[in-house]
């Protein structure tokens, strides 16, 4: 079961989209210098059921164009269920993961994907030297330039 922090509407995490962002707790990757260490505990936050998630989308549907998850790939099936629901609401989907790649089973439910762990020495998506990549899944185009 996914656990999450209260979602927020964000404007910059997915280019040209207004997104409802869910931080999923319990990230197992332990990047050095992670800015979100307080979310590492798998018991932190509330459980995100499909009905609660649908309720959020019903509330925000007229305001947003996309749903972005910060993590959650470690609960693969639960995350895929949410991505399917988002598409049913005609919303695009995005995942920020610290992994270098995700499975075919997951990626086919995504419109956008950010990959790569946090590395303080090369910075995030706004840094030309970053190890991270933000891609449009359908076109496979790297969109990092849109964060600078
Ligand atoms: S993937 Fe993100 S949340 Fe997880 S440890 Fe790395 S920086 Fe922190």
Describe the structure.
The chain has 148 residues and is an alpha/beta fold. It has a single domain, classed as Alpha-Beta Barrel (TIM Barrel). Helices cover 19% and strands 22% of the residues. It has a seven-stranded mixed beta sheet. A hairpin with an 8-residue loop joins strand 2 (8-10) and strand 3. It is globular and about 40 Å long. The N and C termini lie far apart (35 Å). Iron/sulfur cluster binds next to loops. Keywords: Iron, Iron-sulfur, Metal-binding, S-adenosyl-L-methionine.
Summarize, please.
This is Anaerobic ribonucleoside-triphosphate reductase activating protein. The protein has helices at residues 50-60, 76-88, 104-107; strands spanning 3-4, 8-10, 19-23, 46-47, 66-70, 92-96, 112-115, 133-136, 141-142.
Rg for CA atoms: 14 Å
Helix coverage percent: 10-25%
What order do the helices and strands follow?
EEEEHEHEHEEE
The CA-CA distance between the termini, in Å, is 35 Å
CATH class assignment? Alpha Beta
Hetero ligands: iron/sulfur cluster
- Report the principal-axis shape: globular
Largest beta-sheet characterization: 7 strands, mixed
Topology, pairings included?
Layout lengths: L2 E2 L3 E3 L8 E5 L22 E2 L2 H11 L5 E5 L5 H13 L3 E5 L7 H4 L4 E4 L17 E4 L4 E2 L6
Parallel strand pairs: 3-5, 5-6, 6-7
Antiparallel strand pairs: 1-4, 2-3, 7-8, 8-9
Helix pairs in contact: 1-2
The site of iron/sulfur cluster (SF4) has 10 residues, from loops.
Cofactor: [4Fe-4S] cluster
Protein name: Anaerobic ribonucleoside-triphosphate reductase activating protein
InterPro entries: Aldolase_TIM, Anaer_RNR_activator, rSAM, rSAM_sf
């Amino acid at each position: 079961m996914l656990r999450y922090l209260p979602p927020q509407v964000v404007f910059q995490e997915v280019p040209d989209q207004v997104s409802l962002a869910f931080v999923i707790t319990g990230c197992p990757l332990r990047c050095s210098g992670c800015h979100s260490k307080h979310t590492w505990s798998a018991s932190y936050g509330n459980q995100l059921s499909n009905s609660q998630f649908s309720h959020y989308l019903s509330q925000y549907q007229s305001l947003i164009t996309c749903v972005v998850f910060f993590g959650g790939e470690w609960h693969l099936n639960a995350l895929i269920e949410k991505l399917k629901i988002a598409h049913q609401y005609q919303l695009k989907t995005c995942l920020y993961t610290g992994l270098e790649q995700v499975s075919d089973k997951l990626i086919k439910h995504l419109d956008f994907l950010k990959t790569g762990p946090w590395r303080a020495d090369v910075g995030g998506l706004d840094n030309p030297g970053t190890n991270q990549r933000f891609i449009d899944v359908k076109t496979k185009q790297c969109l990092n330039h849109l964060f600078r």
